[in-house]
């Protein structure tokens, strides 16, 4: 398969910008700078794919080029299955990925169906074509570590040492997020190529296979109060217990290996080169071995907590996997959403992101300045935009992320649309978000862990979110199962809009980018969060029973 790169610039081959943008974003997800394993259509997050097969990929691209501006393409788990006449306000693409009926929603059944060629794992933004590389999670990770510092009574992470694992597509944001907060971090990954890639992209300062050398480097930096990130090649299930045994003074511990999928977590004793062959040979046995290793890994995390460290699950379901492996204390440390992020969700805040279809980084720098001018009071946002401008290496089409909330996002969308219309930006801009957002996900081990009213597993909310975004004029809308935490554990929705500079786009953007975060405020009002109620009242959200 030749390398895939999305087209750049203001000329399109599709018949509408909605279809052109979907095509470019599908291609961008598979750009070798963006995807972790593009040859297998794998974008990130274990086996999160952009299309079911190369034949399906070709058919999607061809169909998007032929799609009329009043037609909608339906994609079923990465395969284009139908084109229907709708209308101009309707999404150009509707996507459903990895959905299974409740009793069948297990990894073994999913894999059986996948092997029959009937489904694919879409993760969150892989199968919904709005992954923007490691930057996509960087601000969220940066904000989480800033909140950890505050919870420790510190202004920053200066003088602290964080231990984590998993330097993949999303986990690779952790080292830069810690150093942007002035801290020191040791990150463990079994795969040396992942650490090398993070160094190449400026997310990690250095890496080594020598644990003693890595520990000496991070302790010296911690003592000197200097920011530093060091990767170490090794299995977290061995390295974490070893560091605990040595009594290394670690202040914060988390993990972002792909624990949500036991076949994407490497058990102790399996060489990286034999990973895939071993997992394919006997998936059930591999799952058992990975869960056994995860019990060692999580037991060490609990051990660090017992020793006084701040420990949290970073959204990969490792506690549940360790529990399934037989470790009873797995849930003794919290997930990051209830611990640090929920107050943002109450305001409808979440990872708003946009991509310059021109391919010109200058377009992103112009939008950065526009956002800073739109929100002059938000000091944290200004600090983020400054640091991102300096430190973020663009992967694929230039993109930016920043967390914005209800009655904020549409202002940004309308401004970008004006900038496209006036020619200030060289081509249209794609505006979307992660599925990890305030109103678009039901995921009891992550986004909806420990909801105030106990509604963690109620999955009506992401369905309503997807339906509302479809009714409001989004360019493509997706509804997935199993992202982040694995099959059987989450239902979530995504939307993407296109600012092409037209008056019609402005009308759609205004509605979608108001309504979409509005569902996050609504969800938290319904669950009884006072701050969400205040936001709804202040910002005029209509909630019939409030
Ligand atoms: P990825 O598959 O790209 O990377 C996972 C990394 O873990 C790989 O580099 C792999 O080599 C490494 N790894 C696997 N087993 C290991 C072991 N035993 N010891 C050390 N390293 C090991 O996945 P990703 O996109 O980085 O996502 C990581 C996890 O985080 C997933 O479970 C994902 O669902 C979750 N996630 C969390 C958030 C969040 O906001 N917290 C967001 C997205 C994804």
From TrEMBL:
InterPro entries found in the cross-reference section = Urocanase, Urocanase-like, Urocanase_C, Urocanase_central_sf, Urocanase_CS, Urocanase_N, Urocanase_Rossmann-like, Urocanase_sf
**Mainly localized where?**
cytoplasm
GO terms for MF: urocanate hydratase activity
Q: Which residues form the Urocanase N-terminal domain?
A: 4-130
Active site per the UniProt annotation: 402
Among its keywords, does the record have Secreted? no
Keyword Nucleotide-binding recorded:
no
Q: Which Pfam families match?
A: Urocanase, Urocanase_C, Urocanase_N
User: In which compartments does the protein localize?
Assistant: Cytoplasm
The cofactors required by this protein are: NAD(+)
Q: Which family does it belong to?
A: Belongs to the urocanase family.
Q: What is this protein called?
A: Urocanate hydratase
Could you tell me which species this protein originates from? Microbacterium profundi
Q: What is the lineage of its organism?
A: Bacteria, Bacillati, Actinomycetota, Actinomycetes, Micrococcales
